[in-house]
Amino acid sequence: MHIPDGFLDPYVCALTYFVSFIFLFWAWRKVKAAYPRSVVPLLAMSSAFVFAAQMLNFPIAYGTSGHLVGGAFLATLLGPHASMLSMTIVLLIQAIFFADGGIFTFGANILNMAIIGALSFYIVKLLSGSSPSQKRFIASIFAASWLSVVLGALLCGIQIGVSPIFASAGGLLVTVPAMLFWHIMIGVGEAAITTSLISQLVRIRPVILERLAILGWDIR
After folding, report:
1. ∠ CA(31), CA(14), CA(103), 5° rounding?
2. Which CATH architecture has domain 10-214?
3. How far apart are CA 55 and CA 59, in angstroms?
4. With contact defined as beta carbons under 8 Å apart, do 171 and 162 qualify?
5. Residue 58, H or E segment
6. 59/182 Cα distance (integer angstroms)
7. Are 54 and 74 in contact (CB under 8 A)?
């Protein structure tokens, strides 16, 4: 879902930068006020994992690519605010050093992956309830992971479709179905991997349970 430069209308780029900045400022304020220093090692390790996973890209259509996103994974471990900042740093490194996503389209890529992925935290909270069992918790992560990928792809398709460069190719009628077709399937794979990783981390590293408890995951 990394959109390269030249694909989006300048107005779309400006709008997505503005929206992303608002969310990132909110996340930074929350992290600064509420997160303990003990979260730093977990943030670094999980960010490095997502960075490596996102480097495995495969082409889809119209120059776009598919890959594991990792937004729901980070949101579950770090919460919505830290995960938003973490994913933004991952995307920035990819854009600057690996040309994976553009600089002018950076705001759109943040919105589609970092912000949508981070907000999946609230989907998990909603679906799992106030005192979730482990099975319900994992099922909620699966649903949130899948939905975050599909929603990110939908936004990506809309952003590309409304840009003049793709008007002659069919615009929204082509870009949205193309993105959704592939990412509905990619989302299933991402959801399966995310739930598997979270399940194994909780099983083999009990300290993760303490971190999840800080975020409000009272798992039994």
Report:
1. 75
2. Orthogonal Bundle (1.10)
3. 12
4. yes
5. strand 58-59
6. 10
7. no
Contacts of 20 (CB under 8 A, 6+ apart): 107, 108, 110, 111, 114, 115
Q: Please state, in angstroms and rounded to a whole number, the distance separating the CA atoms of residues 78 and 211.
A: 8
Tens-level pLDDT at each residue, the chain (220 residues): 789 998 999 999 999 999 999 999 999 999 888 777 767 777 788 788 888 877 766 665 555 556 678 889 899 888 899 999 999 999 999 899 988 889 999 999 999 999 999 999 999 888 877 666 778 888 999 999 999 999 999 999 999 999 888 877 788 998 999 889 888 988 888 899 889 888 887 777 655 555 555 555 554 4
Please, are residues 190 and 113 in contact by the beta-carbon 8 Å criterion? no
Distance CA 150, CA 89 (A): 22
Write the CB contacts of 53 (distance below 8 Å, at least 6 apart in sequence): 67, 68, 70
183, 177 contact by CB (below 8 A): no
Please say whether the beta carbons of 87 and 118 come within 8 A.
yes
